[in-house]
């Protein structure tokens, strides 16, 4: 299309409108949604790469105080390697300060090298005072069904 073509300006305008619409859809959903995404990413990474102590630090402080993890429980987590951590669905109520995700975790026993899949549901709550999200579900039970 040449610059002198009478269709050039309407086509250019339509393209610009489309680009603006697409970029507008990429805008942030807000600080609470961004914080949830970042915290879920940190949680997923900690579990996926075997940083269970790091994951423990993302649990709701009330839960950590109520039922502290023993050294034996932490040692059990060192007996496994995670092969995958997949989000298979979820929901969030940002205004209500809650979220949940269904997760599939691939677990490899370091001693037998046997792999199996475990399902886990994460639950989250927004802490208005701390301005952050906490995991309110317990650490994943990687030994269920054994």
* DSSP summary, beta strand count: 4
Strand content: 25-35%
In which order are the strands of the major sheet placed? 1-2-3-4
CATH topology: Nuclear Transport Factor 2, Chain: A
- How does the overall form come out from the CA principal axes? globular
Reading the helices and strands in chain order gives: HHHHHEEEE
The count of helical stretches stands at 5
* Backbone structural class: alpha+beta
Protein name: Lipoprotein
Organism: Marilutibacter maris
Task: Tell me what the structure shows.
It comes from Marilutibacter maris. This is Lipoprotein. There is one protein chain. The protein is built from five helices and four strands, in the order αααααββββ. It is α+β, with helices and mostly antiparallel strands and 146 residues long. The protein has a four-stranded antiparallel beta sheet with strand order 1-2-3-4.
Short characterization:
With about 150 residues, the chain is an alpha+beta fold. Helix content is about 35%, strand content about 30%.
Name a few traits of the molecule.
alpha+beta, four-stranded antiparallel sheet, Nuclear Transport Factor 2, Chain: A, single chain, 5 helices, 146 residues
């Amino acid at each position: 299309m040449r610059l002198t073509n009478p269709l050039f300006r309407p086509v250019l305008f339509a393209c610009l409108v489309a680009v603006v619409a697409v970029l507008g859809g990429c805008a942030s959903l807000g600080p609470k949604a961004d914080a949830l995404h970042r915290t879920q990413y940190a949680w997923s990474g900690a579990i996926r790469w075997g940083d269970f102590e790091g994951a423990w630090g993302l649990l709701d402080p009330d839960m950590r105080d109520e039922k502290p993890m023993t050294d034996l429980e932490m040692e059990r987590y060192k007996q496994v390697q995670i092969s995958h951590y997949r989000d298979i669905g979820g929901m969030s109520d940002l205004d209500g300060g809650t979220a949940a995700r269904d997760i599939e975790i691939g677990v490899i026993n370091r001693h037998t090298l046997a792999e199996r899949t475990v399902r886990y549901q994460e639950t989250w709550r927004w802490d208005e005072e701390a301005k952050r999200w906490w995991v309110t579900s317990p650490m994943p039970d990687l030994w269920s069904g054994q």
